[in-house]
Each structure stands twice: as structure tokens, then as C-alpha cells.
């Protein structure tokens, strides 16, 4: 089945249901991680990284906006409302991506963990690249077109985080130990990034995306040479220690993030943002 226009979806309700679930996963992942990245503004290790990281976050929020727009196009709601007004129980992002950057607050004694930021963003970006490569062949043509656009920016995002990961992990002393600890921490919840959730089988059946296991194996294949380069063993277990965000299971970190993200929007939802 190949669907080229949103108006064709009314003839295929089960296809639409699977598509909506996938789009919310894609949008919510990018939305929350771009916010966590933005909290590093002014706090990155050096000024060049501050600029580069800010650019990546801006791109990532733009990707989320594209997915929310696809949802608006098929009648699910206004893109801005979908981004800002849904409670955490309706969000489909992976729990790992909502976790705070570290102790403290952006405005009050932030003691953020750069090692965690590097590992989380690198591992997620590689998973995103695997998904995007699959989505370029999605049976829903508007999604495939968006994937092609996003893919053009992902190359630079991936190169950026790969460089940080290799340099810090190959360093000696504290830097390497902190990176090893960050890898262990990220893997505790990384299964939530790789899963397609309860409707994953339907997504695959309708040709929206390839199977969860296929995507997982491609991620592993991409990461194996990197782990060999830094002399680390690639963990074989992908946990979901704090719940499966694809099922609406989230932490208080997401509630607080949504309150901050939507504060201005809630002042006047009718304004064009």
C-alpha cells in the first residue's frame, strides 16, 4: 500500500492509527530532546560548542515541527497545540530523552553532566539516522519526503556527536571514567528509544517503517566499530528501567519540562507562534 495524500487516509482507518502513533513518537522524541539540549546554552564546554549545539537543537526542534505538521495535515489537531498542550500521559517520547541534564537548574547552580549529554545525543542521533533511512522508503509519501529533508542535516549532527564521543572516551583519567559511567547510565533506558511500542507490528505491516529488530541491529552494526575504536565493550542489553514512554509512561522530569516549554504558549494559544 502506498498513500500519497492525507485525504486518502479516511479510507484506511487502521493505517491512519498506526501512522499517528509513529508520528507522535518521532515528534515527541525530537521535541523534548531539543529542549534538553537548549538548556546547555551558555553552559557548553566552550563558545564554539555553544554555537554548534544551539544550531543542532534548533534543527531538531524544526524536525519535531515537521512531524507535528504532518499530524495537523491529517486532522489530529493544530501543530502548536500538539506540541504544547498535551499532558505527559499522551506523550510518546522515550523516557531517556526527558531526563534532566544533571543536578541543579539552568538559572540556579546548574551542575550538568557533559558526558551524559554527549552519550545521550550521540546514541539517539545514531538511532534517529537508522529510522530516517528507513522512513525515506515509508509507504506514507508525505513522511518519506520529510525524512529526505531531515536526513540532509543529520549527517552533521551525527559527525558532531561521534567526534565528541571518541575524543572524550579515548582520553585518560576522569574523562574516560565519566564517559564509561554515562554509557552505562544511557543503556539503562535506551531500549525505550529503540522500541516502536505496542503498535509497532502494525507500522511494519503497513510499510510505514521497518521492524524494531531490524532497526536495532542496524544501530548495533553502526556502533560496533566505534566501540572498538574506543576500546569498550558494546552492551547487549537495552533497558527500560524507568518505563516505556511509547505507552505514555513518564517521569516528573517530563511534567516539569512541559510546564516550562508551554508557559508562553499558554498565555495566548490563539497567537501565531
TrEMBL record:
Signal peptide: none annotated. GO terms for biological process: phenylacetate catabolic process. One of its GO terms (cellular component) is cytosol. Pfam families: PaaA_PaaC. It comes from the Bacteria. NCBIfam families: PA_CoA_Oxy3. This is Phenylacetate-CoA oxygenase PaaI. It comes from Parageobacillus caldoxylosilyticus NBRC 107762. The gene is paaI.
